[in-house]
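Posting this for the archive.
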Amino acid sequence: MGKTSRPLAGKRVVVTRAAEQSRELTQALELLGAEVLLLPCVAFGPSEDRGVLDAALLNLAEFDWILFTSQNAVRFFARRCRELGLPERPIDSLQMYRPQVAAVGPATEKAAKQEGIRVDYVAKNHSAESLAEELRTSLKGCAVLLPRSDRADSRLLTALREAVSRPTDAIAYRTLKPESFDAAILHRISRAEVDSLVFASPSAFQNLASVTGAEKLAALSSRVQFAAIGAVTAQALRSAGVRVAIEASEVSATGIAEAIAEFYERRPLQARTS
């Protein structure tokens, strides 16, 4: 790693991921010495209208590929398979269906394997658009199932259509605002009593901004290091006037934690202003 195995000793890091997705990142940060504050700024629930998803799941043999662009897409896909009474391992050992499976990155691949779903391809550059581009030749003329969030943007669908594939956009889950936020942690953030805030999605930032105000977060970013996971999240923060000090391209707990640690190793004197 660098000069010390605990480069985040004395650093206070706020993790804004959903509670069920925070464990690995929290452990990775704590191993590097950080004090972690959990402030879930996003939550997830099943889609309210699962007609398209259900029809696809009941006719998986009609698809050539399934593209998973997030861990949540995998989890809600597998959950709905179980709710519909489909085999627990619908695409793996029984070989009942023919789709090949692609994942946007190693974390999504891991989530798929935990659900018993084999993964045939993992994107080299961990973004949805890169996944479509890397598979462009393989996807030509293919029927592609895309289970994803209700807040997903249209760029991947556009990329798939440009690859002359036939995508089915199936809303598998909703991205929600938490019912409440920890007032004590919000107070510490407002007083710049933390070193870094970690955002894994534009939704997490937008939900926090709806409580604190986007302008206040933008001003705070001159005193607190904002960390963004992935280019899409980083761009969302910058569009809101936030200074992004740390940008992690690898969407894994270890990759994110190490990006934060490397930032502070390069800037050993960087400290809280209050």
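DSSP finds twelve helices and eleven strands in the chain. The chain has a mean pLDDT of 89.
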